[in-house]
Amino acid sequence: MNERSRHPSWTHEIAEKIRKAKLYNLFEHLIANILVLLISFIVIVALYKLGEDVVNLLVSRAFDPLKHETFQTVFGGIMTLLIAMEFKHSILVVTKRQQNIIQVKTVILVSLLALARKFIILDIHALEAAKIAALALALVALGAVYWLMRERDAWNMEHGRQEEG
Question: Which branch of life, at top level (predicted)?
Answer without folding.
Answer: Bacteria
